[in-house]
């Protein structure tokens, strides 16, 4: 019980640290994904020409503040998502493995994938309203606007405006693709991380430590980005719409592919990679550290408990 809480706090703190460093790329990614929506190639102006150009243009026109729009929402979202993810993963995995193999120490790739996805999907569902407001805050630009320009003063103002206008349903706009996206991402993040780690130890003789954490999380981050990006693009577009431009995530997917081509689903991929790679590296490496730290604290508290009882 106390270890689950420990993992929850450790995961959340780790994720917020990671988010602070990478939020600017996320802002660029969202604007790249929304740019030229439902327009054939060449028909729409390309205001943001790529990740570096995007960072440059936003910093020049809106300052660092422009890159960091929606950061507080990102924190709340990360606490919710990664808390759920890292917190539920091990307990879920262990219970399922115990059920199937009668032994919690068995490493089953299928069970790992399932547990990762299930805990991620739970987190995405819980955190979707924050991600929605975050996306809208990030696409707002007084200089080079893409997407619907929602005039939210801050995260709280955004939430209340949406709630007043559209109710709970409005807050949960786009929750479907958000769950799919995160399910895809989570289903590969931890399994590829542990998989890469085991391989690196076995074949390259690497030892437990920062270098191993760095290498394994890089591999994991790349795979995560590849599978997560297409549903992420659909999600950004569902979050942008206020009316009923699309009647479902599937509608959004098919119309995007039809008008902009299949590769449009990978719009903003480099920006996403620029965010995901350091994010995954920092989250997983920091989680290793915070988990270790948390275990130490827990050990101390627990042993103190025991001492007091004696
Ligand atoms: C965003 O949503 C609105 C509808 O609310 C739509 O008109 C617009 O085309 C969408 N995309 C962009 C890039 O503006």
UniProtKB/TrEMBL annotation:
Keyword terms, alphabetized: Membrane, Mitochondrion, Mitochondrion inner membrane, Repeat, Transmembrane, Transmembrane helix, Transport
Sorted alphabetically, which InterPro entries does this protein's record hold?
A: MCP_dom_sf (IPR023395), MCP_transmembrane (IPR018108), Mito_Carrier_Antiporter (IPR051508)
Q: Which domain of life is it from?
A: Eukaryota
Subcellular location, in the record's words? Mitochondrion inner membrane
Q: Does the keyword Transport apply?
A: yes
Repeat positions for Solcar: 2-95, 107-199, 208-293
Q: Pfam families recorded for this chain?
A: Mito_carr
A GO CC annotation recorded here is: mitochondrial inner membrane
Query: Quick check: keyword Repeat in the entry?
Result: yes
- How does the protein's chain sit in the membrane according to the entry? Multi-pass membrane protein
The record's listing under PROSITE patterns reads: SOLCAR
**Which family does the UniProt entry place this protein in?**
Belongs to the mitochondrial carrier (TC 2.A.29) family.
Q: What is this protein called?
A: Mitochondrial carrier
Q: What is the lineage of its organism?
A: Eukaryota, Fungi, Dikarya, Ascomycota, Pezizomycotina
């Amino acid at each position: 019980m106390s270890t689950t809480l420990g993992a929850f706090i450790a995961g959340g703190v780790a994720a917020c640290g990671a988010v602070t460093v990478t939020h600017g790329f996320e802002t660029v990614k969202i604007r790249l994904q929304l740019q030229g929506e439902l327009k054939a190639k060449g028909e729409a102006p390309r205001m943001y020409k790529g990740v570096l150009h995007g960072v440059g243009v936003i910093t020049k026109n809106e300052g660092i503040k422009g890159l960091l729009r929606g950061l507080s929402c990102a924190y709340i979202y990360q606490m919710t998502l990664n808390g759920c993810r890292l917190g539920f993963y091990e307990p879920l995995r262990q219970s399922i493995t115990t059920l199937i193999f009668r032994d919690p120490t068995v490493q089953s790739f299928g069970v790992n994938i399932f547990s990762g996805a299930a805990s991620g999907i739970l987190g995405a569902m819980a955190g979707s309203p924050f991600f929605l407001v975050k996306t809208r805050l990030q696409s707002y630009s007084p200089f080079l606007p893409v997407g619907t320009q929602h005039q939210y003063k801050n995260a709280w103002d955004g939430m209340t405006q949406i709630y007043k206008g559209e109710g709970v349903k409005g807050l949960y706009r786009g929750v479907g693709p958000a769950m799919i996206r995160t399910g895809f991402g989570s289903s590969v993040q931890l399994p590829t991380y542990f998989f890469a780690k085991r391989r690196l130890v076995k074949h390259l003789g690497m030892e437990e430590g920062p270098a191993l954490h760095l290498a394994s999380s890089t591999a994991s981050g790349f795979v995560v980005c590849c599978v997560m990006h297409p549903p992420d693009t659909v999600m950004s577009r569902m979050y942008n719409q206020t009316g009923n431009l699309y009647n479902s995530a599937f509608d959004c997917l098919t119309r995007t592919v039809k008008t902009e081509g299949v590769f449009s689903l990978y719009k903003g991929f480099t920006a996403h990679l620029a965010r995901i790679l350091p994010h995954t590296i920092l989250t997983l490496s920091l989680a290793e550290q915070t988990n270790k730290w948390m275990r130490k604290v827990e050990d101390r508290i627990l042993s103190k408990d025991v001492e007091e009882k004696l």
